[in-house]
Amino acid sequence: MNVRTTARGQVPEGGLDPVASTPGRLLDAAPPVPQRTLTALELRKTVDTRSGRWVFAVILAATIGMVCLVVFAADRDERDAAGLFSASQTGVAVLLPVVAAVAMCAEWTQRTALTTFALVPDRGRTVVAKWLAMLVLTAVGVGVGLVAAWGGHALGRATGHVGADVVWLPSGRLVATSLLDTGLSVTMGLALGMLLANATLSILTLFGIPAVLGILSGTIGALERPFGWLNPGQAFGPLGDPAAISATEWARVGTAAALWVLVPFAAGWWRTVRRDVS
Amino acid sequence: MIQVEKLSKRYGDHHAVRDVSFTCAPGTVTGFLGPNGAGKSTIMRMICGLTAPTAGRASVLGVPYRTIPNPGRHVGVLLDAAARHPGRSGRETLLLAARAQGVPDARVDAVLDEVGLASAAKRRVGGYSFGMRQRLGIAQALLGDPAVLILDEPSSGLDPEGIHQMRGLLRGFADRGGTVLLSSHLLFEVESVADRFVMIARGRLVAQGAKDELTQGRSGAVVRAADDPAALRSALAADGLAVREARADRAFVVDAEPALVGRAAARAGVALAELHGTAGVGLEELFLSLTGSPEAGEGAR
């Protein structure tokens, strides 16, 4: 900690005067950083720790592993572009929502919120940055999945496991609805992370909701119909399926999304913005 | 410039902070003193807009902290050196903070060098000692070349050399026109660097001012009898001199000039082993009397 003898205020950026105490001057001094910078920072925060890099290694391994499994072990009629692509999204769909929940909860459990929210007091900007970062990762997951599916296809053809008549790429609609599917799931993960602020609880809830609702509708016949609308695991299902999606199915997607994505997101936002940081 | 006006914070029935007001002027270091749990951290978090006050308000550089568009460039904050992701390196931690306030990456290496962490910059923070985390926190506070520093217990965990360096750094910062608010539960950590003191106990402000102002009117004498403390005590009582404190070494701290104490002892024929003024210990006594016991905290309202 050597004391510098240079006069303060010599850093040119922002032109900050060390004794600037008039509010007017302060307000023009340094502008807030743009939203895209905050988003880039949140992306960086998902990969700049060893545990973060491990998660992405596992997702990549799952992507490749599931594609290979389909190529070599699935029924022959499932070894098409849609089947390979759907398989590639397994790891992404399961783990990216967890990444989203943990990204939010870590601010509280590692107490980095103390720095994050001191530097960016408008906490909504950080929440939006985390959300945009997760959507970027969703798109990357779909992109990597497409590459893996294409590679699996090539491997299958070379080894005779995929027929020469099979198309190379899944339909644009399936890719788009897969993006929506994972986008909804990561938003739900982020929302639960904001609302519960505890990684374990958020992850349990994330997987617990579809599991519990699924078991209940399986055992109690009267619940089967209503839970088709309420269970995100069931309602979002058609988004990852190449078959045409009916109007009713879209309505189910909307209902489940409102209940498990929109409501927790709004409540979580409210809590995150108001909460005392300690 | 930091202004705190009638700040209060209540958690349920617990009044963590009650009606605290003080001001920190540019060019000064304010020592923010109080026992652990007195409410220092809560007040600092309220100043930084991280905790919402139940009543009252705080401003930094004339405006509420949360309205500053890019606060890192004006206010350097260290609220808890332990609040770090252990998996990131020291450099990565600062890089995130630098980019979040639009400061060039080169500044990260400059501040790491300034606090003597350059050689440990690539190590994970999880492996840092508490003193190293404090240095990292101070480096982070300096990143945006701020005009105000708000540091919560920055000296704890530092080795004597680190404390000495930090004093020099903060003194230089204030001498160049900066404002420093520096908390500690130990007087000696801030006594030599602070120009002014704000003392709180049990959430209330119990004293504030420059050292001279605080100790004025509380000057006294330390006197120790050569053989007979009881005789000395009655001699003091006979002259109406109040004993403020009976120390463990059998000396008394008296609310009176040394000359008065000397005359009282001479009249009673009590031999003395020690008699001197209390200028040097006044602040510490004040600190302990105001913050030390629960009764003192209540009584100093």
UniProtKB/TrEMBL annotation, chain A:
Residues 1-29 are annotated as: Disordered. Keywords: Membrane, Transmembrane, Transmembrane helix. The chain crosses the membrane at residues 54-74, 86-106, 127-152, 172-196, 203-223, 250-270. This is ABC-2 family transporter protein. The lineage of its organism: Bacteria, Bacillati, Actinomycetota, Actinomycetes, Kitasatosporales.
Automatic annotation (TrEMBL), chain B:
One of its GO terms (molecular function) is ATP binding. CDD domains: ABC_BcrA_bacitracin_resist. The keyword Methyltransferase does not apply. The keyword GTP-binding does not apply. Residues 2-227 form the ABC transporter domain. Keywords: ATP-binding, Nucleotide-binding, Transport. Coiled coil: none annotated. SUPFAM superfamilies: P-loop containing nucleoside triphosphate hydrolases. Belongs to the ABC transporter superfamily. This is ATP-binding cassette domain-containing protein. It comes from Yinghuangia aomiensis. The lineage of its organism: Bacteria, Bacillati, Actinomycetota, Actinomycetes, Kitasatosporales.
